[in-house]
Design a protein that fits this description.
By secondary structure, the protein is mainly beta. The protein contains 6 helices and 48 strands. Strand 36 and strand 37 form a beta hairpin.
Length: 823
């Protein structure tokens, strides 16, 4: 799938404009007078994949992707052919290769633009030159990528930084990769990423993701959208449909320097699709097994003739069966957005997303005997539904409204402000079979009756997040500085009612289930209102020395508070925390494309509750040492990262040896490992994604002696490996036919804390086939047909177990057929 890249308008000199942004910590922000200035293209290495063909087309695409302004006479390029380029180059190198053999040469002008002229003397054209400008405000770090290999990201630094210059391991899953692999949930996008364990259950309600052994679920504030956290509690997590995303990025290791409170394993940042200057029109229809009817659309382009206003409208609706009996997946979202760009220096983008979900829960809570091992009656079917069709439900309505603002005062100073308000309301109700098997008169399990209880959760969540950044770039001799200063604020409120009850809830036979019982709403046992605030002040300097060494260092101070009101007892609790975190790292950029790096980073995360004596729990503290090497061979479209790391998290809660049912903070968890991630386009039509992960996570200090040396969290394999290969035929009778195949190995995992349950390893296969219908008939230009299958051989396996009575099956085979039309 090819993307259209934004193209800037010709440079203008409009009168002084003023823009007031009214959102800040107290609800206001001083207005800033914004002066449009011309964009500035930086001579950094980027990956280009421009096919051979018309020189005019190649130059137009190069201008969009590189950010360079080119001027040339139309007659000089007419009829000429470019050899194309594929690989990582500086813009001037890429331009020279594009012009190779064309008879034209590029001359750099004092303003940084390039003029193209015949290499040999010839007649001078009297026609006005044509200008092709790239996006003045670079989209390299958040925009579309042609293929699987991204080279820039803002997630690791909040600046437009090459991945090779960031002293931490980062993965980017591009829109193309998500499309070709038919990703339907964010966690599915991470199946082939090193260090990431996803899908520890087949769950429609929320994402189940861990990085380097630590959970980054939304309740742990490890999942982000456009750099702002999607904070939540319990079951009311925010769900972002991946069709609304341009990228999914993983920053491994502590991220508190830039994002505040977090687990030390890392974060997942989802990047929204944004309006484009080039017209984009797409519709797609999907069906499949289990039964599915799904339609999506994506439209974008200029909203006005002068190009100052851009729009994008993305949406998708789904009505699908699931592999669990009686559970359906009905959801729809729409994401309107628009961009105002009054000049090449100023962008203001409003992003919205509204989603409605009416579904059930596919993650049935089942005992280990009956899933991992058979009962006398066999194993429980993956399609078994442990609830009651007329009782179980999962309903969620969520809305998001935010903006992304950027203004370049000049080549040195840039102001950015990102803000979002999001809210959701979730009603979850289910019969949970977590209590295990019923018993015979002799006390032995009967293996025919699962004991159940009724559970309900009514949640309302609201979050306001704001991040203001001031960036300064300067060069002094051999030193080039990119200084970032930021202030971020987040305020969340959670209104929660949880219910629990066993009265009137009959057991169920998983081998011969009977439904139709009337279940009453369970009594409320938890009714709370919680308000949380976080304020962070951070600074970072990226220093490039002699264009060979990049040193990144920064620090951050956080203040957080949480107030909780118990509506059942009328009591209130208040907890205030503060912490200093930071990061320092260094990368050496060798001419060969190798970039060895080292870094040290810290994290913190507040914990609710008190000791027996009433002392509030201190935040957990994490620190990581990481070393590795990144490799981006010159002239090739590939990127490889190898890293070793050690993470230690302190102040982990553990049992109080002197007081029953109380906890103290003497626990320590350590995660050590090695990761290898590679993405490459070895030929124009061959894409490869490969990853290997070794994670040794264990408890090193606990008041439970039997837990020391054990894996503290469920579902974390010591070994993981994956490989995806994608190839498209572009010549001959089969031109336009593409194939993809992948394999994923998930190693042995254990239940949490005591490791009493061992979950065996599993290898899963995925496959894809697609066809460009234009190759069959020119009248079908823009149409394509694809067929994707995950868990191709429909292997029934246990994804994870929390304890002997709480195991989850992994997703079975899903086959999706999609007809897509772009015009």
């Amino acid at each position: 799938m090819n993307h259209s890249y934004p193209t800037s308008r010709h440079a203008r000199r409009p009168a002084l404009r003023a823009l007031a942004l009214a959102l800040s910590l107290a609800g206001t922000m001083p207005a800033a007078l914004l002066f449009p200035v011309a964009g500035h293209a930086q001579a950094a290495v980027a990956t280009y994949r421009i096919p051979a063909g018309s020189l005019a087309d190649a130059l137009e695409r190069f201008g969009r992707e590189s950010g360079l302004m080119l001027s040339y006479a139309a007659e000089d390029v007419e009829g000429r052919q470019s050899p194309g380029i594929s690989g990582a180059y500086r813009p001037d190198e890429a331009l020279a290769l594009l012009l190779s053999g064309t008879g034209l040469a590029a001359q750099r002008l004092p303003n940084g633009s390039y003029a193209l002229r015949p290499a040999a003397p010839g007649a001078v054209s009297t026609l006005a030159p044509i200008e092709v400008a790239g996006n003045a405000l670079s989209s390299r770090a958040w925009g579309p990528v042609d293929g699987f290999v991204a080279n820039y990201s803002m997630t690791g630094t909040k600046t437009d930084t090459p991945l090779i210059e960031t002293p931490q391991s980062i993965s980017v899953v591009t829109r193309d990769q998500m499309t070709w692999q038919a990703v339907q949930k964010t966690e599915q996008a991470l199946r082939y990423e090193a260090g990431v364990r996803a899908e520890t259950a087949d769950d429609l309600r929320h994402q189940n993701i861990s990085v380097r052994g630590f959970s980054v679920a939304a309740s742990n504030q490890g999942i982000y959208l456009d750099g702002l956290a999607l904070a939540t509690r319990y079951y009311g997590s925010y769900d972002v449909n991946p069709y609304a995303l341009e990228r999914v990025e993983v920053l491994r290791g502590p991220a508190s320097l830039l994002y505040g409170q977090n687990q030390p394993g890392g974060i997942v940042n989802q990047v929204s699709k944004r309006p484009t200057e080039a017209p984009l029109r797409e519709v797609e229809f999907t069906t499949g097994d289990p039964g599915r009817a799904q339609v999506g659309f994506d439209f974008s382009g200029p909203a006005t003739e002068d190009g100052q206003w851009l729009y994008r409208l993305t949406g998708q609706g789904r009505n699908a069966d699931t592999e669990v009996d009686t559970v359906r997946d009905k959801r729809a979202f729409i994401a309107p957005s628009f961009t105002w760009q009054p000049s090449a220096a100023t962008h203001f983008t409003v992003l919205t997303n509204f989603q409605r979900i009416r579904a059930g829960s596919t993650d049935q809570w089942l005992p280990s005997v009956g899933t991992l091992t058979p009962t006398p009656y066999g194993r429980i079917s993956r399609s078994f539904f442990s609830g009651e069709p007329d009782f179980d439900r999962y309903d969620k309505d969520q809305s998001m409204l935010g903006y992304l603002f950027e203004h370049k005062f000049n080549d040195s100073w840039t102001l950015r402000q990102n803000a979002r308000y999001n809210q959701n309301r979730t009603h979850y109700r289910a019969l949970i079979s977590e209590l295990g098997w019923g018993t015979l008169p002799d006390g032995e399990p009967d293996y025919q009756s699962l004991q159940r209880y009724a559970f309900s959760s009514e949640e309302k969540a609201r979050t306001l997040a704001l991040d203001t950044q001031l960036q300064y770039q300067a060069r002094t001799g051999a030193f080039a500085h990119t200084v970032l200063m930021g202030l971020d604020y987040q305020q969340s409120s959670f209104d929660t009612q949880l219910g629990f009850g066993m009265d009137g809830v009959p057991p169920i036979n998983p081998f011969d289930p009977v439904y139709g019982y009337k279940i009453d709403e369970p009594p409320i046992y938890n009714d709370t209102f919680q308000r949380m605030r976080q304020l962070g002040l951070y600074a970072q300097d990226q220093v490039k020395i002699l264009d060979k060494v990049v040193v990144t260092a920064g620090g951050r101070m956080d203040w957080s508070e949480a107030s909780t009101r118990n509506n059942l007892t009328g009591t209130r609790t208040q907890q205030n925390d503060n912490a200093f975190t930071g990061r320092i790292g260094m990368v050496y950029l060798a001419d060969s494309g190798l970039a060895p790096y080292v870094s040290y980073a810290t994290s913190f995360r507040p914990q609710a509750g008190t000791t027996f004596a009433g002392t509030p729990f201190r935040p957990t503290k994490g620190e990581q040492y990481e070393a590795g090497v990144k490799f981006q061979p010159k002239g090739q479209d590939s990127f490889v990262t190898a890293s070793v790391f050690q993470i230690e998290q302190r102040n982990v809660l553990t049992r109080d040896p002197d007081h029953l049912n109380s906890q103290v903070q003497t626990g320590v968890v350590r995660s050590e490992g090695f990761e290898l991630q590679g993405k490459a386009s070895l030929a124009r039509n061959l894409d490869i994604v490969a990853a290997y992960t070794y994670t040794d996570i264990k408890t090193v200090s606990s008041n439970y002696p039997e837990q020391v040396g054990k894996v503290p969290f469920a579902g974390v394999p010591k070994h993981m490996a994956s490989l995806w290969v994608d190839y498209t035929i572009d010549t001959g009778a089969l031109a336009g036919l593409g194939f993809g195949a992948g394999a994923r190995y998930l190693g042995t995992t254990f239940s949490d804390l005591d490791n009493a349950v061992k979950v065996p390893a599993v290898t899963l296969a995925d496959a894809a086939i697609r066809y460009d219908l234009e190759r069959a008939s020119p009248s079908m230009k823009g149409a394509s047909l694809s067929l994707n299958a995950s868990n191709l051989f429909d292997k029934q396996y246990v994804a994870s177990c929390n304890n002997v009575n709480l195991c989850f099956y992994g997703p079975g085979r899903v086959v999706l057929a999609t007809l897509r039309y772009n015009w």
